[in-house]
Amino acid sequence: MTEVDYYELLGCSRDADQGTIKTSYRKMAMKYHPDRTGGCQESEAKFKAVSEAYEVLKDPQKRAAYDRMGHAAFKQGMGGGAGGGADPGFGAFSDIFESVFGEFMGGRGGGGRRQARRGADLRYDMEISLADAFTGKSTEITVDVSGICEKCDGSGAKPGTAPKPCHTCGGAGAVRVQQGFFVVERACPTCHGAGQIIADPCPECRGEGRVDQTKTLTVNIPPGVDEGTRIRLSGEGEAGARGAPAGDLYIFLHIARHSLFTREGTTLHAHMPISFTTAALGGDIELPGIDGETISVKVPSGTQPGREIRQRGAGMPVLQGRGRGDLVVHLEVEMPRKLSSRQREILESFRETETGEECPQSTGFFAKLKQAMGA
Length: 375
Hints:
Elements lengths: L5 H5 L7 H15 L1 H4 L3 H17 L2 H10 L20 H12 L20 E7 L1 H6 L1 E12 L15 E2 L8 E6 L2 E6 L8 E2 L12 E12 L8 E4 L15 E7 L5 E4 L2 E9 H6 L1 E6 L5 E6 L8 E4 L15 E8 L6 H12 L7 H13 L3
Parallel strand pairs: 1-9, 11-15
Antiparallel strand pairs: 2-7, 3-6, 4-5, 8-9, 10-11, 12-13, 14-15
């Protein structure tokens, strides 16, 4: 029997985090669940396969064993747990049930108070120079965000008072509703799932537990960041209502255009014009490196337009790693637009001494052209 890679079954990359794996599993399990596919045997087999994959990948120890040895880790008692086509356990089905009926449930314990909703994540776009991306930097940003109300310490209740248990749900945050043969739980319509009622709200935040404020934050940018690199500041997003955890702030980096260099990963590119005499005779040219050090580039004699010269280790640093990329110098031969009488005389003398071997491509082209015209 062919063993399909667990990551491939769930449609995840091997470096996917637990949240991504769980989300992918829920989508696949909902798609192939027997109750939704009318008992299709093929779908049922697929459902068991993705459930088996999730049972392994959601467990850090099992996942590590699978990453090292693949399916062999769970054969002949090597790893235990999932493998060998075992039916999914209760944990897999409860994950599906939670995803379908999550908005009605008050928690896995049944009847417990609902958790307050976490604050929203926020996004901040920052532009930095290519030089800053090379060296890294520490900078400060100012953001407008909802923060914890200091007057009530985030409770939403007027100082000196406290929230009271909701009389509708008894503090559970959820009420049970009969729907046909089923009894489901829904968020309490009175307290909206909080389980508490604020009879005397804080005048500063009007019972929300949070107020708009301006914060100054320090952002540490590591060397080697690229366009679109994301930096997460945990807990610096929007504050949750009535003491709930705050969301995160995500910094998205954008690299400003550089006057000399363009970037491709860790490789830098520079287009440099050189005179036709330097291209013909060769020579050394100098250009400033991204690190401020002067780079000497040796141009060989007979260099043709568009030639590339690679300078090892003169590019961008590897993000959170060691070493640097390369610098690729693209040489563009510039022809003179104006000639003095002396220069013209020298070039005329050079033309009189040409044998055709100096420029074999043009000589060969004209030879083929004469042959094609029957000359």
